[in-house]
Amino acid sequence: MLKPKGLGLLLFALLSQTVSADPPTGYPFVSYDEGLVQAKQNGRPVFLYFGRYGCGWCDKTNREAFSDKQLHRLYSDRYVLVYVDAESGKRLTLPSGERITERELGARMKVLATPMFAWLERDGREIFHVPGIQSAQDFLLYDRFVSEGHYRKENIRDFLAREMR
Amino acid sequence: MAAPWEFGEPVTVSAARPGVFHHLEAAGRRSIAVSSGMVAVVWEDNRDGTPRAYVAFRAAGKSKFVLQRLSGMQEAYEPVVAALPQGGFVFGWEEGGHVWVRSGGPAGLGPALKLSGAEAAQVVLGAGELGVFAAWAERSGKHMAIRFTRLKPEATLDAEPAIAVTAPQADDQIYPALVVLKSAVALAWEDRRDGHTVILHARTRDGKRFSSAQILNEQRERRSQTFGRGTGAARVALARLDAERASAVWLDKRDFEGGYDVYAALSEPGAMRFQRNERVQDEFGNNIGQWHAAIAAQSGLLVIAWDDDRDGSPDIWLSWREASGWSENLAVPGAGGAGIDASPSVTLDVAGHVHLVWIEQQTADAPTRLRYVEGRRAAQNSGAPRVH
Predict the structure, then answer these.
(1) Do B232 and A53 touch (CB under 8 A)?
(2) Do A99 and B256 touch (CB under 8 A)?
(3) What ranges in chain A are assigned the alpha helix state H?
(4) pLDDT at A8
(5) Does any CB of chain A come closer than 8 Å to the CB of residue B22?
(6) Which of A64, A156, B15, B157 is at a distance of 20 to 30 A from B376, taking alpha carbons?
């Protein structure tokens, strides 16, 4: 198939979005492919939200954490926000060029429970991920781990242990 | 544990090449079929830079698979195959945002026929005494809806006008599975009308009207903080257990903390109803996620394949139906160990021999290759196990 470009690509992506789930409202979440393009263009890391259609813990996290105004401002400004539906057949392109479905990305990333949140380098490489319900304070701490560059020196477990002391 | 099959050495259907990604994604996981001893495997890869659908045939007694391209010039995905009762095969795939079918065999493929009238994907095929049928997900307004048609595999493959399986719904229907019984065609699919994914099923006797849709995956708890609008379920597949009974498998998140589990159900004769849901994987696989569940049945024999990483990396596992329930899980010889063995598709031939195909990778970043193994029905098990 001829690869659509620019506006055509966006239209194609919108038209071919067969299923959608529940990203938190008011946040500029985009598709995986669009997110990786944006991340390369503007140099921001990616915040990847793995949800599932009808997922209770996703709804709870959306309601209780993503309603936080500081979190909204920080994550909207610092990250490219990507939402992936763990049961969707929508296709995406990995940094390697491989085309797989959103569900298959979940299989590769071993998404056992939703929500799962992953922080990615702008080239798509995973920095770390956390599963399950998270609070706004959790997300603010994770942001420090990424935006202050701690992840280059230590893993998330050591960082959190140090921060909790 | 005495396995009902004695497995041979795996062979390569399509070799690993740098930058080439093989995929065995298909509605109903129908990526392999056997007709008169001829094995056909379908998959998608990007060997020429564009994702395309391919088929490879292996004649009885031969080890080598011979490849042909199924799809045309546009990006193609999720090919499926079904064996035709009179011999040969029918193939389906998604290409350029539509679903297509063609029939043929190693001697050649007939012309491709577009089935869909709007954006469509996830075609599945089935054949039996009642004929040859196709189902797929097609855009209907804002949502995807399951469409169904009878194929006419004459000199040139043709199709009757497609029908909707249900009245229009307020959310998507995706990933249909289909099985042709002696007196009915049974369908199952993922349906989001309830605000979460449920597996629904329906059947038709005349190919023109379907029974009202029924829920296949039992709903234990609903609309709680933990489960939200409901638990997850995905990627149902169907097989013909015997002349009048279907068997279903799907991935189910009712036990939400350990990822998806493999669940199955057997139908009553005629497939109007399914019996209770049964968890398939054994206790050693309970606390990890299962993926890519496929099913095959033949004259009362029933086997399910999937991958999970209980031994540290994804391996192919089998379970078969015994008189007491589902067997202990068998790691398929040659489809496990170090590296990644995943995404299986499975079928049983008329003699009860199992044919399995899967994707193998040395590491997550390594090139993929497509592998096949045959399990010959073990002599001591020639009379069992069967589902009664």
Answers:
(1) yes
(2) no
(3) 6-15, 32-42, 56-64, 69-78, 102-108, 136-147, 156-164
(4) 41
(5) no
(6) B15
Instruction: Check residue B219 and give its pLDDT.
Output: 85
Q: Which residues of A are less than 8 Å from B235 in CB distance?
A: 103
Average pLDDT over residues B264-277: 97
Beta-bridge mates of residue B144: B139
Integer angstrom CA distances of residue A153 from A7, A148, A149, A150: 40, 11, 8, 5
Residues in chain A within 8 Å Cβ distance of B52: none
Residue B223 has pLDDT above 80, yes or no: no
Q: Which of B96, B196, B235 sits opposite A53 (nearest CB)?
A: B196
Average pLDDT over residues B14-30: 97
Measured CA distances, B92 to B16, B47, B103, B171, B278 (Å): 24, 20, 9, 25, 30
Q: What pLDDT band is residue B228 in, cutting at 50, 70 and 90? A: low
Cα atoms in the 13 Å half-sphere on the side-chain side of B154: 5
CB A52, CB A58: distance < 8 Å? yes
Rounded-to-integer distance, Cα B193 and Cα B142, Å: 13
Is B324 an interface residue toward A (CB < 8 Å)?
Answer: no
State which amino acid sits at residue B46.
N
Cβ contact B257–A107 (<8 Å): no
Summarize the confidence of residues A54-78 as an average pLDDT. Answer: 94
Running DSSP on this structure, what letter comes out for residue B69?
Answer: E
Per the document, the length of chain A is: 165
The answer on pLDDT for A5 being more than 60 is no
ipTM associated with this complex: 0.93
For B181-211, the pLDDT digits (tens) are: 999 999 999 999 888 899 999 999 999 999 9
Extract the tokens encoding B49: 């830079």
Q: What is the DSSP string of B71-104?
A: S-SS-EEEEEEEE-TTSSEEEEEEETTEEEEEEE
| CA dist., res. A28 & res. A77, Å (int) | 10
Give the mean pLDDT of chain B: 93
The SS3 of residue A64 is helix
Q: Are B123 and B27 in contact (CB under 8 A)?
A: yes
pLDDT at B383: 47
Nearest-CA distance B261 → chain A (Å): 10
Single out the residue of B243, B342, B356, B353 nearest to residue B295, CA to CA.
B356
Whether A100 sits inside 8 A of B23 (CB atoms) is yes
Q: Within the 326-385 window of chain B, which residues sit less than 8 Å (CB to CB) from chain A?
A: 342, 364-365
- Other CB atoms within a 10 A radius of the CB of residue B17 amount to 14
Q: Token digits for B209?
A: 């009207």
Token couple for A155: 């893993």
